[in-house]
Amino acid sequence: GVFLASIVRSAGGGQIAQTLSWAIFGSSTTVSTYVFDGKVELVAIAFGLAAVFWLFRGFHAQLDRRDAILAGLFGGLATVTKFSLIPTLGLSMAVLLIWRIWAAAEPNGNSVRPAKVVTFAKVAAVMTVFALVAWLPQLLKNSVVFGAPLAPFLGMPEGAAILDQTWFSPEVTRHILAT
Question: Does residue 7 sit in helix, strand or coil?
Fold first, then answer.
């Protein structure tokens, strides 16, 4: 909720908009259902909101390198936590980054499109590199434990895919715990 209110404030929302964002977040059946079920989606949501927060921090100023690094790291952590967030969070972050760069006020009021495209490419590259840094422990663990960095989604041997129950066998569980 705090990240959400900060994001709303950074985007220009006043006190009413921030309060409304809290109300929407708190009354969401998705959030309340996941809280009681103990699902990882809430962790991914927290990391994703942190990524958006750092992307929006100081919205009308030049994007700070530290903000881009932290947005990338938190975006990477969100996608490690919930693999299915890669397309949605990735696209959302790209759109928000474009909006931020194009909406940034320039001292002389001119809009130089080629310069903004270069800025987008540089910031997106920094964010991507640091998102990959967040993925390194997961990729290393999966390589050691399963011999496939993107297990259980890609690289698993035939018959050991995510929908096959051999993924959850006692032998696999012992191997995970022993590693």
Answer: helix
**Token reading at 110:** 């001119």
CA-wise closest residue to 48 among 103, 96, 14:
96
Low-confidence ranges of the chain (pLDDT < 70): 1, 30-32, 34-38, 58-61, 104-112, 157-168
What DSSP letter does each residue of 92-130 carry, written as one string?
A: HHHHHHHHHHHHS--TT----HHHHHHHHHHHHHHHHHH
Asked if residue 7 lies in contact with residue 22, where contact means CB atoms within 8 angstroms, the answer is: no
1-23 per-position pLDDT tens digit: 677 888 888 778 888 988 888 88
What tens digit of pLDDT does each residue of 166-179 get? 555 777 778 777 87
- Residue 54 and residue 70 in contact, taking contact as beta carbons nearer than 8 Å: yes
